[in-house]
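Revision sheet: structure tokens.
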Amino acid sequence: MDRVLHFLIDRINTPIGEMFIVADHDGNLRATDWADHEGRMRRLLRLHYGEHGFRLEPARNPNGLTHAIGSYFAGEVTAIDALPVKTAGTPFQCEVWRALRTIACGATVSYTKLAEQIGRPTAVRAVGLANGSNPIGVVVPCHRVIGSNGSLTGYGGGIERKCWLLKHEGEIKGDLKIPVRHRDGLLEVNCDDDTGLNVPVRPMSV
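Predicted:
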């Protein structure tokens, strides 16, 4: 019989919404996601560990992970840099996720540069897909990857959260309007909102 993995799950309130934190009993972070995307988090866990391959047990601050993530949101942005993580996924996905952790806080890279960094310069699209499948958001900082033209592109937690996180880390400074890819073309997002949520979006002037 396959072994069932027992994971610990906690939750934390952040300035941009409630976050779930999933860890194993060895202290490794296995998943993070926003409460309004709980279905996606559970779907990724099933994909990685099997339909009946894991159980979630409520816990408080497993291995200090919740406290560290709370410190990040409180302004100590390097508090999550060395947190232990462990994921399943394909070898390619894991390679991309490891590369994400080398992006310094307060910096961004393009999908093209990330593909070059892992020695796969022609795999830009695949890198983007792996980035979007990252199960440990914020700590494995997929939000620090942007389009080659400087646009924010997509983010599983929502563009507004990506905008807030980059501003929180100092990559976006002051009141700034930044380009965002959208089905209607390249739009402009106002990042001067205190929360980063529900910020206005409008077509960019040319």
